[in-house]
Specification:
Number of helices of chain B: 25
Helix content of chain B: over 70%
CATH class of the domain at 1-34 and 46-161 in chain B: Mainly Alpha
CATH architecture of the largest domain in chain A: 3-Layer(aba) Sandwich
Strand content of chain A: 5-15%
Structural class of chain B: mainly alpha
Number of domains of chain A: 2
Number of strands of chain A: 6
Shape of chain B: rod-shaped
Radius of gyration of chain A: 20 Å
Order of helices and strands of chain B: HHHHHHHHHHHHHHHHHHHHHHHEHEEHEE
Distance between the termini of chain A: 47 Å
CATH topology of the domain at 1-34 and 46-161 in chain B: Serine Threonine Protein Phosphatase 5, Tetratricopeptide repeat
Oligomer: heterodimer
Chain lengths: 227, 685
Amino acid sequence: MAIKKYPVLIIDDHPLIVDAYKTALKYYTAQQSAINFTIQIAENCDSALQLINGYERKGKEPGLVFLDMKLPPSKDHKALSGEDLGLKINKLFPKTKIIVATTLNDNYRVDSILRSINPDGFLIKNDITPKELIQTIHTVLTDPPYYSHTVLKLLRTQIENNFFIDAIDRRILYELSTGTRMKELPNILPLSIAGIEKRKRQLKKIFDVSSLEDKQLIIVAKEKGFI
Amino acid sequence: MLKTPFFLKPNYIYQWLAAGVLFGLMAHANENEPIRTQYELLFSKIDSVNYWTKASKNTTYTLEQRKQFLLKCYHSIKANRTDTLRTRKLTSNAYQHLKLGDTLLFKAHNAEALKLATTLKDSFAIGDAHWNYATYYVNNEAYDNAYYHFNMAQDYFEKIGQLSELAYVQYGMAFIKGRFKDYTGSEVLTFKAIEIFKKTENYKSLFSCYNHLGNLQNDISKFDKALFYFEKAIENLNKVKNNNNLRQAVLNNIGNTYLKKGDYINALQNFNALLKNKHLKASNIENYARTIDNKAYCQLLMKDTTNVANALQEALDIRMNQDRKSGVVISKIHFAHYYAYAQDTLKAIAYAKEANALAKDIRNGRDYLETLSVLAHLDKKNSAIYLKKHIDFSDSLIVIERNIQNKFTRIAYETDEYIEETQRLLQQKIWIITISSILFLVFGFSIYITDEKSKKRALLFENEQQKANEQVYLISLKQQEKIENERILERNRIAEDLHDGVLGRLFGTRLGLGFLNIEGNEKTKNDHVSFLNELQTIEKEIRDVCHKLSDNTTSSQINFSSIIHNIIESKSKLGDFTFKLDFDPAIDWQHINQITKVNLFRILQEALLNILKHASATKVTLNFWFHNKKLLMEIKDDGVSFDAKQKRKGIGIKNMKSRTEKLNGKFSIVSKHNKGTQIIIKIPI
């Protein structure tokens, strides 16, 4: 069996986590001797971009990317987080498998990451154990995707409540939940106050909320896993 | 200026003799007995007094009874309202007292009437009261006082055009002037009176006036003119019924005039004509005595002594009987003349001396002088003494008369001045009243304005205070919000640090630990796994903490409901009551105006204060709900009720109401007996 070479890109600003990934990969190689990982590490967006651009120049692509969402942004502010990097990787190297590992666990962000990056592995850092990490690597390499427990739970609630809620609705809910003022929303969203209000009324209808206060709406939306 | 009306003290008080006194005084100027002419001329009055007055006039009662009636009348008048009718009745009443000879009551009542009339400015009553005084002083022979009051009465009657009264008063003045030999003045006044009496066709009074004019002419020895006036008097008398007494009086006067003129034949003729009346002696014995006496004297002057002594004696006897002292004096003078003519000087002197003493006794100056001249003529030895006495006395008389005449002039002048002065004072009074009332108005107005201003200022101040209060509240609210926001930011930062830093590192550590191949026995391996699990649990807990920290929705705004909750909770502890707080979830507090919230908060504060202070409630319910685009707040307690309908509402309720109205809302308060109080605020949103 020929040894398959797998260039691996670990993008995470926590050296401990990077070490953990490395250990996991080592364990995996120990189990699957047919795979040989070549590991490169980026601790921030800039070095990550550098590495990505390097692959692109060489006309190569990484086989597997561990991607953290929360990263120090690039100096030119072209990439603010792992999400931007993920999008770029998807664009440049469609075949590259991405494992998003994040401490974020609010439903909205998880959902939006699912939609935008559509990673092959989605790990909520807290969910996983070393064993699970190895399992993830295996599943992603052999039969993706692999979602950790929290992500699966979210997907399930969304299927249960099959509402028609678009990205902007979600964004509105999300912004309200973080305490953004109504009057600030038009600066964030491509909508007027009236438009936002209209959507809010619609959302309240969908979530069956009678209260005029947003609080109730947000509570319900959270219960339903939309934020 | 005003001379006291009592500047001459009455030396004694005569019994009321009506106008006869005046005529008596007047008649002695004719060296004759007093002639009683009409009683009512000078003093007749318009009597509009009531029943008691009538009763008091009824001569069938005794004098005491009549006085009692008058007093009753007085009290009934006093009980009446204060008006002009009352004052007029009072003056009439006073006059009746005078008539009945009760001078003390007269003076008291008349003074009262005058005072009242002066206050009421009732010129007629003032004149009437003065007329009363004049009458009283004439009775007391205080002629200067009498003249003063006549003059006052004249001025007041003239002022209001009270003609008939004016004429009477003028006649009274004319009489007094004639008495003191101011013949011209007396004539002028009499003509004035005549003018009026002619207009009013008062023939009886006209007769009196012409009679008076005749007497005046007699006094200045214009006998033809005197006879002319007496004729006129008779002309007017012919138009008067029951004129016998008056006719005899004027005929007597005519006879006297002829006698004085020296036309003894005509005089005798006149007296004889009078004596032809067979009823004379029976109807008027005094007149009869006067007539026979005059006739006898006339005969004596014609040097015809037939039956003269008898006639003189008869007259003297009658007069002695009637106690007519002035008549007695005249009789005795006539006897003196008779005995002088009969050459019986001793007897003549004796009669003359008797007459002289009596004349002196009754203070009849004219007759006293006459007797003195007779005595000087008869008593040759003492002639010089009598002459001197005569000269001295007549000089003193002249001086007195002059003085009195001067006094009259002065009185007339002073009355004019008094009236002018009163007018001036009145004008002054009007000015003072006008100016002071204007000043008062200005003062009052300025006080009103300052008061209004200060009220307005206070209101403005209160308004500003309220605004400032609200501003402070809003500012503090904003401040609190700011602090809260800072806190949220800080919390978020902590959450992020925990989440990204600690949690990440913990995760890394846990993974690293997990990948460590623990060498050892089974227990060590198990411990390793359980520690790893423990670490994972810790991570989870930290994550939850992070979530809670960054869950900003509930605290992103200063929560109105929590403020409300806080205040009612704190008050419930103070007032020892339980409370129930209910918010309609349909109310979007975030979108309700801060001002509205502030005012609702203040109203609630006020209501709770009332409950604490007055209600002693055990349970308070507070509800907020939304209905028909209106925000409603209900505050209900089960404490002591109060009268919600009472007009004067407490400042608390007023404040709540005004705050509600400021928000275009409706305020209602219901307080039922033993069922507590319910306040509902309805504000359109």
